[in-house]
Amino acid sequence: FLRKKEDVIDQIKKEFGGDIIRKGQRDYEEIREGWNHLIKTKPRYILRCKTAEDVSSAIRFTRQHQLGFSIRGGGHSISGLSLVEDGVMCDLSLMRNVHVDPVERIAIVDGGCIWKDLNTEAQKHNLGTVSGLISETGVGGLTLGGGIGWLTRSYGLACDALIGAEIVLADGRILNVSEQSEPDLFWALKGGGGNFGVVTKFTFRLQEIGDVVIGEFIFARSQTDHVLSTYIDFCNGSPDSVTAFLWIAQNAIIVMAVTLSTDNDQVEKEFKAFADLEGILKMSINQESYSDLQSRYDSGNGPGKYVWSRSQLFEKLTKEMFDVALEFYKTAPQPTQLEFMHLGGKFSQIGSQDTPFFFRNAQVECHAISSQVENYFPESQVREWAKEFGKKMAGISGISASYGNIVCQMMDMGNSGGISQYGPNLKRLEKIKLKFDPGNFFNRNHNILPEKAEEPSN
């Protein structure tokens, strides 16, 4: 039996140029562990690819031996879908090359890159793109899932900057796609998740991004009502170049405001509403590089924590939304944070059918998230709280959708939360899935099923 397993893996060694890690090897567990230690899924093989051809070999090997298949890009998965039990994990983390063309303002980024890789190269030329909130987030996962970031109000989602991709399909073919070549498949990659293949290269249109100004304002929880009222007014009146995120924790409420303006008078005017509030515990206003902003919260969001989350999109930013969230927060398993990300601006100026992310009318994304060093929550208790929280928030949201990149399937009761952001665009995605992955080989994701054939009419 052991000899048979060795023969199986020997078959791929002839054409696979990457590293092969088997369950039971000394370094298996270190390589297997993802960002979220709540996930204990154990693949049989980890195939660490170095080229698109390696990915193609991994796919053919997996299909030949009828194993499950998953994809790891930058390795920052909340849901844990980058792992597959007793199957093959296609690990792109060795593929970390970035090429920036400062004249054309284009970046070509390997599928295993994290945003720090791109930021480091692009910022040499004062260029960048929307890239999440943490620099160690994977480029692939964030972009394929849409990609909300610090500059979403200014430039849209991460996927909105995508202008091309290299992708390996379920049959092992390697394609280069864009609006001119396989436009339907390219459209599906702009937020449709990892349902259509393994993206080994992303091509982004970059923006000129120099320094930004960040205002961080920390208040006592006793000032919650005043802070929330100010936050609502601030967001409803701010220009597209300004965004503000809000965190509610047990003992504090934090506002993080970011502006592209570096004019002192303009910054003072934009941040005055929070700076003048009573009860402020700490305030800082700093001009820093976009790369520094991206890595500001890396230390508190590194790998090795036990993380769960529950997400909801909202059509409007209202007092009722905060009231309901705070009432449920009283019974939340601790430590838990409520986080609110202001949308609108450029995000909402893009058509609802221009990308798979349909709900461009959303003005805020709210999620409950818990991250801890040890896993001491009874899972049933957390699941029940998350279920009730999600149900209540959805009832007042005006939008029946979550943000897929923050959906933890075990807390969102299955697959529906992860694909809800597609809305009516799901039908088009199902047609594209049928064309490029009719057997649903790529199913370790927020899964889109291939379109079903219509029943013949009598």
Question: Could you explain the architecture of this structure?
Answer:
The chain is α+β, with helices and mostly antiparallel strands and 458 residues long. The chain contains 15 helices and 18 strands. It has helices at residues 2-13, 28-32, 52-64, 115-122, 139-144, 152-155, 183-189, 224-237, 264-275, 290-295, 319-329, 346-349, 379-395, 416-419, 426-436, and strands spanning 19-22, 45-48, 69-72, 88-91, 98-101, 106-110, 127-128, 162-168, 174-177, 198-205, 207-208, 211-220, 242-248, 252-259, 280-289, 306-314, 337-342, 364-372. A seven-stranded antiparallel beta sheet has the order 15-12-14-13-17-18-16. The chain has a five-stranded antiparallel beta sheet with strand order 5-6-10-8-9. The protein has a four-stranded mixed beta sheet with strand order 1-2-4-3. Strand 13 (242-248) and strand 14 (252-259) form a beta hairpin. The longest helix has 17 residues, at 379-395. The protein is globular. It starts with a helix and ends in a 22-residue tail after the last helix.
